[in-house]
Amino acid sequence: MIRLAYCNVENLDLKKAYGLVSKKRQEKINFYRFEKDKKLSCGAYLLLKKMLAEANITNPVFKTEKYGKAYISNHENIHFNLSHSGKIVLCAISDREVGADVEIIDPEIDLNIARHYFYNSEYENIMNAENRQEEFFKYWVLKESYMKYTGLGMNLKLDSFEIIIEDKISLKNDKKNLKFNLFDIENYKIGIASHYDVSELIEINVNELY
To answer: Which residues make Cβ contacts (< 8 Å) with residue 86, sequence separation at least 6?
Structure first.
């Protein structure tokens, strides 16, 4: 089982939404200075809450692993991952480990990031692409989704593994038979690493979060 959904939270009613999140999430929201970031933090939690409720999970107890990946301690068969960028929040839930990432395509991105931190073949493919910036973010969300899948996050070096983008996206020397899927929405890229082929990206209207 796996579900992947996103929501544009630009018009999120923060006053209305704030009271619907946990106290711990409220503390995290309060930490942010700008309203945009507050909406992203609040919206991501509400999207997760909605998706868990649809999976009949209404009493999740959230904890974090050693490197910061959140999990539900009282539902070991449910895994989730959150991401946000620009105006978009993203949530994936599954009965197996999952990692997901969304990034807005920045046309001014410094491609030297790929040169210095990506696997050599990935950098070469980016530089040979017709649209280098778009190709960069394909690799970025796929690599980030895998790093989040492992639970290591940025503790896993970007150049320590190779993503292969051909007819089928794969991880070189993969021993777990992971599935990678890539989605485009407007000027965003979305990547997901899981044990399933994900064919559907669900759009949630912001009003469905309340």
So the answer is: 104, 187, 188
> CB within 8 A of 82, min separation 6: which ones?
44, 47, 48, 70, 89, 90, 91, 100
pLDDT digits (tens, 9 = 90+) for 133-187: 999 999 999 999 999 999 999 999 999 999 999 999 999 999 899 999 999 999 9
Amino acid residing at 208: E
Output Rg (C-alpha) for the chain, integer angstroms.
17
Query: In the chain, what's the furthest Cα-to-Cα distance?
Result: 49
User: Which pair of structure tokens corresponds to residue 186?
Assistant: 């407007």
Alpha helices in the chain (DSSP H): 14-18, 23-31, 35-54, 112-117, 120-128, 132-150
Q: Say how far apart CA 140 and CA 49 lie, in whole Å.
A: 27
pLDDT of 33-43, one tens digit each?
A: 999 999 999 99
Residue 128 CB-half CA count within 13 A: 6
Handedness of CA 166, 192, 112, 85 (dihedral sign): positive
Alpha carbon distance 207, 75 (integer Å): 27
Question: 205 phi and psi, to 5 degrees?
Answer: -75, 140
Whole-prediction pTM value?
A: 0.94
Indicate the average pLDDT of the chain. Answer: 95
Q: What is the pLDDT of residue 58?
A: 84
Q: Which has the closest alpha carbon to 17: 34, 42, 50, 40? A: 42
